[in-house]
Amino acid sequence: MSEPSVLFVCLGNICRSPLAEAAFRAQAERVRLAAGADSAGTGDWHVGSPPDPRAQAVALRHGIDISGYRGRQVRAEDFHRFSHIFALDGTNLRDLRGIRPADGTAHLALLMDLVPGREGTNVTDPYFGDAAGFDVTWRDVTLAAAALAEKLSGR
Ligand code: 4NP
Question: 112 is in which domain, residue-wise?
Answer without folding.
Answer: 5-152
